[in-house]
Specification:
- This protein has 609 residues and is of the alpha+beta class.
- 40% of the residues lie in helices and 19% in strands.
- The chain is built from 21 helices and 22 strands.
- The radius of gyration is 35 Å and the shape is elongated.
- Pfam families: HATPase_c_3, HSP90.
């Protein structure tokens, strides 16, 4: 039998469109063809298990070979094969009727529509024509008495199919797809290039993949196994296999395994992440039935968990997945919610079972937890019980524990609890020490997200405000009933303000005289808590309305202590020199005295001594 016909796609220019626009990356052809070969093999195994195929299975392996001289790539399987009629059904009749609409969409090069069409109409086999000028199929069906089917197409809509016999027939069950590589695709004749593609997409396929005599895949990766069958070393070894350049072991991991209401397996690792918000996005790999799809998993994994590493495998996600599919698909949304819950459950379990061990890991996992609380209200509700706050003393508290710890001593005259914090305990040491002298506790809030986290806690916690220790003088941070009275008259206070304003001569510094304790510093420089916090949030991606704060010049309050003996000396001597010296001391305490001003301060200090 020999037959020539036209492929039923209802349009003459489908193949140029496939070749130019169907896939953004031509290397995908190998993934598609190897995946088809694996499917054919697995189908045969299923038929054998059901008793519908009683012959010998033999060695079920997919082989990929390249012949650079002959310009051929061959993908061979030992699966169920196809008859000539089946080839005409599955290969020739591309399964869609709206081909004309398809062509029109591709003329607009709509990437999202393009990806949807690939997945919807099963055009994976035709990706071969992106790199081949001619494609042959040699197939021998598992069915008893079936003849070899030989199909040839040169990239036009014309094909030839025949059933060779004798020495020209295929000797074994299965299918060989032979690509005659086009002149513009020489790169795919290089063994190293093909090996790279196979390693990327086929590394964990469930059927052995052999390339030039070498097995390139692990057919049973650990995410397909039961956690009870795995050791910690198995998980760590797999992590190193996924990320061979990583120098650190993961902190811990979560083994995902759910079959209702969607199918999902995988392993998520918590890596060590210290001070920086390291958005290393290409770390979680997305698979569908062990075939690599993408490492862009933004819509599958919650944004705050993009810092995790690992593998997610779901047959509910098609190989040719589009961004629009991920955003719209109900199963993807369920997967997203499920992963969030599993991570929260794991963290809660670690905290509950081993508080000391959890605290040891807090420097690494705190970023995940805070980011999650900021990103997801449901995660906040779960995490509020295991998020930790760190005091400058080094002790860690839960939100409830810390509120109870400071409530008695750090309430202001209106009954509000005031949480004091530092963003740099060393630079703000003087302010921290002043707070501690009054038995106030001070939190370390020095992570990149803490400015946002503080704002969230103020919204969530009742009658609670946060103030950085250098946002005001220690007496003004937590205003009590017993405010000290000024020893100066109103005229003296006004004169004092004028002297300091003249000595400072800086419009960014706003001088005010206040009655503080005689033991407090003579001059304190602070920045408005709201303004400084808005600037901090803008610098860490606050966006929106906070952009205006980032562009505004810095503004500081200079509080002159009316009850300080040194301030009284300024009034008595009428000297701007002492005022300037007191101001420079305040700058020095804030780490703001530098360059020429610092040199002048040192010289003046020597003279005053």
């Amino acid at each position: 039998m020999s037959e020539t016909g036209s492929i039923s796609i209802h349009t003459e220019n489908i193949f140029p469109i496939i070749k130019k626009f169907l896939y953004s990356d031509h290397e995908i052809f190998l993934r598609e063809l190897v995946s088809n070969a694996v499917d054919a093999t697995q189908k045969l195994k299923s038929l054998a298990a059901l008793g519908e195929y009683k012959g010998e299975l033999g060695e079920l392996k997919v082989r990929v070979t390249v012949d650079k001289d002959q310009r051929k790539i061959t993908i061979s399987d030992h699966g169920l094969g196809m008859t000539a009629d089946e080839i005409k059904k599955y290969i020739n009749q591309i399964a869609f009727s709206g081909a004309t609409e398809f062509v029109e969409k591709y003329k607009e090069k709509d990437a999202q529509a393009k990806d949807q069409i690939i997945g919807q109409f099963g055009l994976g086999f035709y990706s071969a024509f992106m790199v081949a000028k001619e494609v042959e199929i040699w197939s021998q069906s598992y069915k008893e008495g079936a003849l070899t089917a030989h199909w040839t197409c040169d990239g036009s809509t014309q094909y030839t199919i025949d059933e060779p016999t004798g020495e020209h027939a295929k000797a074994e069950r299965g299918t060989d797809v032979v690509l005659h590589v086009a002149e513009d695709s020489d790169e795919f004749l290089e063994e190293a290039r093909l090996r790279t593609i196979l390693t990327k997409y086929c590394k964990f396929l469930p059927i052995p993949i052999e390339f030039e005599g070498e097995l390139i895949n692990d057919t049973t990766p650990i995410w397909t196994k039961q956690p009870s069958d795995l050791t910690d070393e198995d998980y760590k070894k797999f992590y190193q296999e996924l990320y061979p350049m990583s120098m650190d072991e993961p902190l811990f991991w979560i083994h995902l395994n759910v079959d209702y209401p969607f199918n999902l397996t995988g392993i998520l690792y918590f890596p060590k992440v210290k001070d920086e918000l390291q958005f290393q996005r290409n770390k979680i790999q997305l698979y569908s039935r062990q075939v690599f799809i993408t490492d862009e998993v933004k819509d599958v994994v919650p944004e705050f968990l993009m810092l995790l590493h690992g593998v997610i495998d779901s047959p509910d996600i098609p190989l040719n997945v589009s961004r629009s599919f991920l955003q719209a698909d109900a199963n993807v949304r369920k997967i997203n919610t499920y992963i969030t819950r599993k991570v929260a459950d794991k963290l809660a379990e670690l905290f509950r079972k081993d508080r000391a061990g959890y605290e040891e890991k807090w420097a690494d996992i705190g970023l995940f937890v805070k980011y999650g609380m900021l990103s997801d209200d449901k995660f906040y509700e779960r995490a509020k019980d295991f998020v930790l706050l760190k005091s400058v003393s080094g002790k860690l508290y839960t939100l409830t524990e810390y509120t109870e710890h400071i409530q008695a001593n750090q309430q202001d005259k209106d009954g509000n609890t005031v949480v004091l914090y530092t963003t740099d305990a060393e630079q703000q040491h003087g302010f921290v020490a002043a707070a501690q002298e009054r038995d106030y506790d001070v939190l370390n809030m020095d992570q990149v997200l803490d400015a946002h986290f503080i704002g969230q806690l103020e919204q969530k916690l009742e009658k609670t405000s946060f103030k950085r220790v250098d946002a005001a003088t220690v007496g003004q941070l937590i205003e009590k009933e017993e405010a000290p009275a000024s020893v100066l008259s109103e005229d003296d206070q006004k004169k004092l303000e004028e002297v300091f304003t003249g000595a400072i001569s800086n419009p960014a510094m706003h001088v005010k005289v206040a009655a503080l304790s005689p033991q407090d510093a003579p001059v304190v420089i602070t920045q408005n808590e709201f303004m400084r916090r808005m600037k901090d949030m803008q610098r860490t991606g606050g966006g929106g309305g906070m952009q205006m704060f980032g562009s505004m010049p810095d503004s500081f309050d200079v509080t002159v202590n009316a009850n300080s003996p040194l301030v009284s000396k300024v009034l008595a001597d009428g000297g701007e020199t002492i005022a300037k010296q007191a101001f420079d001391l305040a700058l020095l305490a804030q780490g703001m005295l530098k360059g020429e001003a610092l040199t002048a301060f040192v010289k003046r200090s020597t003279e005053l001594l």
